[in-house]
Amino acid sequence: MACRSRLAPVLKRVAIPSLRRSVAVINPLVSATRCISSTAPRRFRKSSPRCAGFTTDSYPEIKRDERFAQITNEHVDYFKQLLGKDSAVIDGVTGAAAEDEIEPFNLDWMRKYKGHCKLVLKPGSTEEVSKILKYCNENMLAVVPQGGNTGLVGGSVPVFDEIVVSTSRMNQIRFFDEVTGVLVADAGVVLEVADQFLAEKGYIFPLDLGAKGSCHIGGNVSTNAGGLRLLRYGSLHGTVLGVEAVLPDGTILNDLSRLRKNNTGYDLKQLFIGAEGTIGMITAVSVHCPQRSKAVNVAFLGVESYDKLLQAFREAKTQLGEILSAFELMDSQSQNIYHKVKGNTRPLDGEHPFYCLIETSGSNSEHDSAKLESFLEDLMTKEIVSDGVMAQDETQFKSLWSQREGITETLGHWGGVYKYDVSIPIKEMYQLVEDTRKRLEDAGLKDGTEESPVVDVVGYGHMGDCNLHLNIAVRRYDKKVEEALEPFVYEWISKRNGSISAEHGLGIAKKKYIGYSRNETTVGLMKQIKNLYDPVSAYSFLLPH
Amino acid sequence: MACRSRLAPVLKRVAIPSLRRSVAVINPLVSATRCISSTAPRRFRKSSPRCAGFTTDSYPEIKRDERFAQITNEHVDYFKQLLGKDSAVIDGVTGAAAEDEIEPFNLDWMRKYKGHCKLVLKPGSTEEVSKILKYCNENMLAVVPQGGNTGLVGGSVPVFDEIVVSTSRMNQIRFFDEVTGVLVADAGVVLEVADQFLAEKGYIFPLDLGAKGSCHIGGNVSTNAGGLRLLRYGSLHGTVLGVEAVLPDGTILNDLSRLRKNNTGYDLKQLFIGAEGTIGMITAVSVHCPQRSKAVNVAFLGVESYDKLLQAFREAKTQLGEILSAFELMDSQSQNIYHKVKGNTRPLDGEHPFYCLIETSGSNSEHDSAKLESFLEDLMTKEIVSDGVMAQDETQFKSLWSQREGITETLGHWGGVYKYDVSIPIKEMYQLVEDTRKRLEDAGLKDGTEESPVVDVVGYGHMGDCNLHLNIAVRRYDKKVEEALEPFVYEWISKRNGSISAEHGLGIAKKKYIGYSRNETTVGLMKQIKNLYDPVSAYSFLLPH
């Protein structure tokens, strides 16, 4: 069996008998950091050509609520006195701080949304957050809570002159129980820091995503982030045991339970998971962390059709069962772009209409490898997959994952990307990509030439969670493309009872489209909740009101 | 190696080399029904000596809210017309139904709580539930939603003359997706029926409990039931994807999402999970069901101290990892009572201060057995456990499980049981049992004689979830025992930030004790929610108001 330089093609039909010798098990402590360097978002890039200017320009229909006060020097003095040290207040109001210092808080990492904020506060404790919010509430000052500012829908940056309340100085791990795996930590702890802390104890944070090097766990919980481990460890609604949050009026909700079971009344913390900071600011979380797997394996497969991909997923669930930790989908278009931009060697010979990345995590490397090999042999025998490789060392492990995780970065190569993060019933999931591609071709917006605005329409995502990332790589942002995409995409999803935001949230980007995924009654009940916690709208307006 | 008649002592030190030959894998489709016959609660027993009479007698401090109307013949006529058929209305108001027919709905299965209900409605659809609640709301008629009536805290039966709205006729499975495992079903589907349906498809309901033969899945979700599978599959807050509920004013909240990810606004359904029917009646649920394991093994071990039990649990998490599906604790007192009442042969020689039952579930029986054997060998070598057996066939599997599941039933043998279902930080968990035992001994209420009111104080439960069942078996209910127990037990738990109700809920039994597990702010916020959904208190009063 000939080996190529980067990845050994262990799954060629002829190679099956030798599979057992070519398996490598990756140290999970190393592999867990795989995505940091390649895909962690940079906080901001100066003079990026992609910056769309102020959000107020791109969303002219959103008007500042004039009931909110303008920030005065007196307000700034109060905050400086409260927080006690200069570094906790970035003050552009009196001109003490330059615009450059404020920009990282005004601008999201994609440089798509930019606010006019002039004051950033960095409280060091829950009590300080409480005093800030109480004061803002009483003085009609609008605020935006901000974690690592890695959100993708403009929910973490101001639009007008809202005060940014940053969790960056609240970054302590408060408690960890080595028997139960319960972690209690400040909202501002960076996800990767939490995960590294847990790795030393033999545990893992039940959430993993590309931005882990920057994002804060409080922001993760506020956004109800999904990410790469949801298939295995479930959603944050199940793994978050407790939340400490400050309500708009300054009330501290201390619900930092360390217990897996506590049936004493309504589970209020659930409201704050995924509320995007609109009804309170999360200041700490308590999380049930699973045992870290000793063995992690990964395979990368080529598949001839979406139907076969569905079969492969069903078989993976049956045959890999409890060790299956990721089943990621990539179409050929996404891989073509990735390789065009990166110039890398492809892991498989030739092109396949679909690819999937399958990861297993378990407690016994020998058992896991045996299961994965037997599964792959079975898929080959049944002709469900056409070709495949399995990582044999850490480099290959990272390389295979980068085929999936590197897509996001490379799509922007030509100028811009229209991004849709959606959930669709699994059987119809990929059809959205095909229908969108056809629609753009029919409209003459994608004709293969260098002049056409659309480079390609690609689909990838977390197949295991029915979570598709539909991305349209473009040479330039173009009104005609936008008009072809919206509301088409949302209507398509709505007809199939899908979700227009699977894991990114609504933010400002999707706020007005909530009706495509939630009926009028439900939206009305959400408004009730918003009104209950924030009757004077002291917060920004991330949800319908 | 000598084998006893029922269970082979495969874990005797001398027997370790032969372990591999003595392993049996149980058919999960069979084993899943293990608890039905032995511990499924009987709905009611006539002339039981344990019946405490009407709840109004045992809780004289609870007064009927006189704002609620008395049920008239006119009301009954409306319901008869609405529901269209006689069998859907059990009418004791006009005397059409005898008391006997109503009693099963008035009385909880423990015969501890008994109401004065005279009207039972059995709607056949969500629309009918909506019309019933709207009418009741407008006419100030109090209602109590009821599922299988297997609750343990008096939350599912009326106290006064509330109308029972039963889910028993809403028992259809609406949808199942064989690729994703998403099940949508009416609230009144019996848990066991749902699980058997899923078993045929290779899936499992992510919840298992003793009452599965009677309880309804809508009631399970309303109570946020925990049970035996929480350790493996997590809480219902994570596995329930959607809820359809009717609010007190008749509004239908249709949030029956079939998607694992849907971040479009507040996750309102979470409020209904564990709300015990106080803010709405769940009429259907959507659940993400895991793959059913092909192999299930069980071991039963004797341990010399609670510290060693903690070590065993930590090792089980590390070594069994992804296949660990139960880690149940039993103290010697609970086992002594079980064997005294049942007269069974004990699975292990002699007595041990503690016992644990460890279950594994996985996709490959050979791998699972190897892991479990290696784990048990390691525990024996490290002297963490003293003795143990492993089930070798289905009979032994059931027999070992009955050591744990049969406790509840046998405790009542002498007359009555004081039951506490609590969560406590794991290191201190068992201390509560010892402190309670000492307290009752010191008070002269447990002296080993036949005259003493207390037979014994036992502890057992779901160690993996820090969920202890503290039970006091008594010869008679005695005010002195009650005074020694309460508020002592609640104060003890409160000091350690535990929960006074881990999985049973508050109901009427623990309503007034909520302050021991939730602070004033949190309770205040819960009242806000109750008031938001049920401002005219058209519902019963299961939560503080």
Question: Can you walk through the features of this model?
Answer:
- 2 copies of one chain form a homodimer.
- Chain A is 32% helix and 18% strand.
- Chain A is an alpha+beta fold and 545 residues long.
- Chain A folds into 4 domains: 134 residues, 2-Layer Sandwich (Alpha-Beta Plaits), CATH 3.30.70; 112 residues, 2-Layer Sandwich (Uridine Diphospho-n-acetylenolpyruvylglucosamine Reductase, domain 2); 116 residues, Uridine Diphospho-n-acetylenolpyruvylglucosamine Reductase, domain 3; 125 residues, Alpha-Beta Plaits (2-Layer Sandwich), CATH 3.30.70.
- In chain A, the strands form 3 sheets. The first copy, chain A, has a 7-stranded antiparallel β-sheet, with helices on both faces. In chain A, strands 5-6-9-7-8 form a 5-stranded antiparallel β-sheet. In chain A, strands 1-2-4-3 form a 4-stranded mixed β-sheet, sandwiched between helices.
- The radius of gyration of chain A is 24 Å and the shape is globular.
- Chains A and B meet through helix 10, strand 8, helix 12, helix 14 and helix 20 of A and helix 10, strand 8, helix 12, helix 14 and helix 20 of B.
